């Protein structure tokens, strides 16, 4: 029985012992950006990001009563 367990342990730890063939590295750069972002680009980016987050949640909150009514109609 212990031989079987050792064999299973070897199979499971073999890839760890061999090391990975693909090395992933984060592309982190500590120097300044090549192209500076202007105030217009920053405002557009923040606006799009805010709309992307706030509009769907606002839609759900606006129609919350409708969703509650649908849930009670289906259960009856």
Automatic annotation (TrEMBL):
<keyword id="KW-0496">Mitochondrion</keyword>
<dbReference type="InterPro" id="IPR003205">
    <property type="entry name" value="Cyt_c_oxidase_su8"/>
</dbReference>
<keyword id="KW-0809">Transit peptide</keyword>
<keyword id="KW-0472">Membrane</keyword>
<dbReference type="GO" id="GO:0006123">
    <property type="term" value="P:mitochondrial electron transport, cytochrome c to oxygen"/>
</dbReference>
<feature type="transmembrane region" description="Helical">
    <location>
        <begin position="42"/>
        <end position="61"/>
    </location>
</feature>
<dbReference type="GO" id="GO:0005743">
    <property type="term" value="C:mitochondrial inner membrane"/>
</dbReference>
<keyword id="KW-0812">Transmembrane</keyword>
<comment type="pathway">
    <text>Energy metabolism; oxidative phosphorylation.</text>
</comment>
<dbReference type="InterPro" id="IPR036548">
    <property type="entry name" value="Cyt_c_oxidase_su8_sf"/>
</dbReference>
<protein>
    <submittedName>
        <fullName>Cytochrome c oxidase subunit 8B, mitochondrial-like</fullName>
    </submittedName>
</protein>
<comment type="similarity">
    <text>Belongs to the cytochrome c oxidase VIII family.</text>
</comment>
<keyword id="KW-1133">Transmembrane helix</keyword>
<keyword id="KW-0999">Mitochondrion inner membrane</keyword>
<dbReference type="GO" id="GO:0045277">
    <property type="term" value="C:respiratory chain complex IV"/>
</dbReference>
<dbReference type="Pfam" id="PF02285">
    <property type="entry name" value="COX8"/>
</dbReference>
């Amino acid at each position: 029985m212990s031989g079987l367990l050792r064999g299973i342990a070897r199979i499971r730890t073999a890839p760890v012992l061999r090391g990975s063939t693909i090395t992933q590295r984060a592309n982190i750069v500590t120097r300044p950006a090549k192209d500076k972002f202007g105030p217009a680009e920053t405002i557009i980016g923040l606006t799009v990001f805010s709309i992307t987050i706030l509009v769907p949640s606002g839609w759900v909150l606006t129609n919350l009563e409708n969703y509650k009514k649908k849930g009670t109609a289906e259960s009856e």
